[in-house]
């Protein structure tokens, strides 16, 4: 693996870009500057924006401003106020800023998604003197206010719907569902939103209703992964000018007015339907925006671009999704996911997870700190071998922040990093982390069937997660092997699959991991994981797991 580019250079470039944005409206450094520090919905009928201002002095020969501060509203797709004169509010000059603007209280109100800037009037034009700020509490508009559901354990599994009975027998507490938006648009299910009518695929939505209600109705916490494939009929789903490539998924588009409206309607439709307000549809408690978004090339394609530009583009998408979801379900959690390539050389298509997280967090903090979370994928390295405890031997995992890969072998690097003050949320709490996709193959690329090692790897990984207070869930990929994955030596399931059936998933035989999975979070756990110690090369679990919870 190549050495990554220096994070210091990335952040320096990012903050340089931010400074350029903030200062873009200045005619001269002599004019006033402003900083917006708070933007919140109050009493469901107003938005209060607060901040500070610093007076400047007009140089000789410069046109003075008119003595007031003006508040402008920008949509996500607008880059600045340009020649606009339609300010929302004004105030007398002073060291503190406070603006109050009306808000309807409706989650569909576009103002909930806006960002706000302060400007001076200089001559006949308005010049921005602050960076932007977004609303940080869209949950104030939510109609569904039930608390986030409690879970008895962190044990999760990607479930086949027709094997729900098996999943319940296994004691599954968490699951994931993929929702590809490009399949949803078009159909006969009408949805009225913000004065427009959108039509969705009724049969597909009904299948999600059955799945989500079945899972959440049994007390399983559902995590939905929002994905955007290619759809020729709806080009507004993709960045303007983008052409179809071999990417698996594409980035959501909020860079144009039409793209923003359509994307927002899709997010809002799903968020409201699965908010928990409708028993017949079920409840999604966690939402993941995109898949492994530090991989622009394959999983979130928006065209080649540098890390700073790419991250800023994703920030806008994430805020739209976050606002749509939290304005429907007050306590839903919203995540983005990355792969395990913690440090790598950043290109125009693939980026280090750590660098992406750092830049995303810095941008979110500077423009309104919302409660984002991370959905991480700590597979073994490589995916075609189940052992992770020897990944350090090849230099792929270390106990340093500069580790090329962060997976189960050094998972503490991730959670230690997220305990830093600058990574915490606005309340000072460590952000929510879930492991939303990871697995251990039972078909080694070099040794063939290794059912016992797969089972040992799961036992070790689960104990590591269970002892780590900063990880909320561990969702194993998957209940049944996927044919296409098995063909690549990635047999992650706890059941084997009929390789002759490409039309459906047909489970054949439970593997060794099945029993381990079933009992891993029960009082009998140690009985079913004793075999794993000799495989891993230990005498006791406490040798390799700090604060191991069970008595050996």
Description of the structure:
- By secondary structure, this protein is of the alpha/beta class.
- The chain is built from 13 helices and 22 strands.
- The chain has helices at 7-23, 164-170, 181-184, 202-217, 257-273, 307-326, 353-366, 411-418, 451-466, 483-486, 512-519, 525-529, 532-536; strands spanning 33-42, 46-54, 68-74, 89-92, 96-102, 115-122, 125-128, 133-134, 155-157, 174-180, 185-193, 196-200, 221-227, 286-289, 333-338, 372-376, 433-438, 443-444, 448-449, 473-476, 495-497, 507-510.
- Strands 9-20-17-16-15-14-13-10 form an 8-stranded parallel sheet.
- Helix 5 crosses helix 6, helix 6 packs across helix 7 and helix 9 (451-466) runs parallel beside helix 11.
- It is globular.
- Pfam families: DUF5722.
- Residues 1-19 form the signal peptide.
- This is Tat pathway signal protein.
Spatially, the strands of the biggest sheet line up as 9-20-17-16-15-14-13-10
The CA-CA distance between the termini, in Å, is: 39 Å
Structural class: alpha/beta
Strand content: 15-25%
- Average of pLDDT: 94
> How many strand segments?
22
Q: Characterize the biggest β-sheet.
A: 8 strands, parallel
Shape: globular
* CA gyration radius, whole angstroms: 25 Å
Bin the helical content. 25-40%
Low confidence ranges: 1-29
User: Counting H and I runs of at least 4 residues, what is the number of helices?
Assistant: 13
Explain the layout of strands and helices.
Elements: H1 7-23, E1 33-42, E2 46-54, E3 68-74, E4 89-92, E5 96-102, E6 115-122, E7 125-128, E8 133-134, E9 155-157, H2 164-170, E10 174-180, H3 181-184, E11 185-193, E12 196-200, H4 202-217, E13 221-227, H5 257-273, E14 286-289, H6 307-326, E15 333-338, H7 353-366, E16 372-376, H8 411-418, E17 433-438, E18 443-444, E19 448-449, H9 451-466, E20 473-476, H10 483-486, E21 495-497, E22 507-510, H11 512-519, H12 525-529, H13 532-536
Helix pairs in contact: 1-7, 5-6, 6-7, 9-11
Domain DUF5722: 148-544
Pfam family, one: DUF5722
Signal peptide: 1-19
């Amino acid at each position: 693996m190549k050495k990554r580019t220096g994070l210091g250079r990335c952040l320096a470039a990012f903050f340089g870009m931010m400074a350029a944005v903030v200062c873009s409206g200045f005619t001269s450094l002599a004019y006033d500057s402003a900083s917006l520090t708070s933007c919140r919905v109050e009493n469901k009928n107003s938005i209060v924006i607060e901040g500070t201002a610093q007076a400047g002095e007009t140089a000789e020969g410069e046109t003075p401003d008119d003595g007031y501060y003006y508040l402008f509203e920008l949509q996500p797709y607008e880059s600045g106020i340009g020649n606009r004169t339609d300010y929302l509010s004004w105030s007398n000059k002073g060291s503190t800023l406070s603006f109050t603007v009306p808000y309807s209280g409706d989650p569909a109100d576009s103002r909930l998604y806006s960002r706000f800037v302060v400007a001076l009037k200089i001559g006949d034009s308005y010049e921005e003197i602050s960076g932007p700020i977004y609303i940080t509490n869209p949950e104030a508009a939510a109609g569904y206010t039930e608390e986030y559901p409690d879970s008895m354990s962190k044990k999760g599994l990607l479930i086949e719907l027709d094997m729900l009975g098996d999943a319940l027998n296994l004691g599954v507490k968490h699951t994931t569902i993929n929702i590809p938006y490009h399949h949803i648009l078009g159909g006969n299910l009408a949805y009225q939103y913000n004065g427009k009518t959108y039509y969705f695929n009724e049969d597909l939505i009904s299948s999600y209703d059955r799945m989500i209600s079945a899972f959440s109705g049994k007390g399983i916490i559902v995590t939905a992964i929002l994905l955007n494939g290619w759809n020729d009929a709806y080009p507004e789903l993709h960045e303007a000018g983008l052409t179809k490539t071999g990417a698996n998924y594409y980035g959501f588009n909020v860079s144009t007015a039409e793209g923003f409206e359509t994307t927002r309607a899709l997010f809002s439709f799903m968020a409201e339907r699965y908010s928990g307000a409708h028993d017949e549809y079920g409840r999604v408690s966690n939402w993941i925006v995109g898949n492994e978004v530090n991989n622009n090339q394959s999983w979130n394609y928006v065209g080649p671009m540098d890390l700073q530009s790419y991250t800023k583009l994703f920030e806008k998408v994430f805020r739209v999704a976050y606002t749509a979801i939290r304005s429907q379900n007050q306590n839903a959690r919203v995540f983005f996911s990355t792969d395990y390539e913690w440090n790598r050389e950043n290109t125009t298509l693939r980026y280090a997870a750590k660098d992406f997280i750092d830049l995303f967090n810095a941008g979110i903090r500077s423009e309104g700190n919302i409660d984002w979370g991370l959905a991480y994928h700590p597979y073994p390295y490589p995916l075609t071998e189940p052992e992770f405890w020897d990944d350090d031997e090849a230099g792929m995992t270390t106990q340093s922040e500069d580790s090329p890969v962060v997976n189960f072998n050094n998972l503490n690097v991730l959670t230690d990093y997220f305990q830093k003050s600058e990574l915490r949320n606005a309340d000072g709490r460590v952000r929510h982390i879930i492991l939303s996709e990871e697995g251990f193959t039972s078909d080694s690329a070099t040794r063939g069937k290794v059912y016992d090692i797969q089972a040992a790897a799961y036992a070790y990984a689960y104990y590591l997660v269970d002892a780590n207070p900063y990880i909320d869930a561990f969702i194993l990929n998957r209940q049944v092997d996927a044919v296409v994955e098995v063909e690549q030596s990635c047999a992650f399931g706890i059941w084997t699959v009929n390789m002759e059936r490409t039309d459906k998933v047909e489970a054949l035989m439970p593997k060794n991991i099945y029993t381990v999975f079933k009992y891993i979070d029960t009082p009998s756990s140690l009985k079913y994981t004793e075999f794993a110690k000799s495989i891993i090369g230990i005498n006791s679990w406490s040798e390799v797991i700090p604060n191991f919870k069970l008595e050996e």
